[in-house]
Amino acid sequence: MRCVIIGAAPINNYKKIRSFLQPDDFVIVCDGGLNHIKKLRVKPNLIVGDFDSHKNPNLPIETIALPREKDDTDSVFALKTAISRGFKDFLFIGMIGARLDHGLGNLYMLIKCHEEGLKALMLDDYSEMQIVGKQEAYITDAYPYFSLLNITGLARGITIRDAKYPLENAQIKQDYQYGISNEVLPNKKAAVSVSEGQLLLIKVWK
Question: pTM score, two decimals?
Answer without folding.
Answer: 0.95
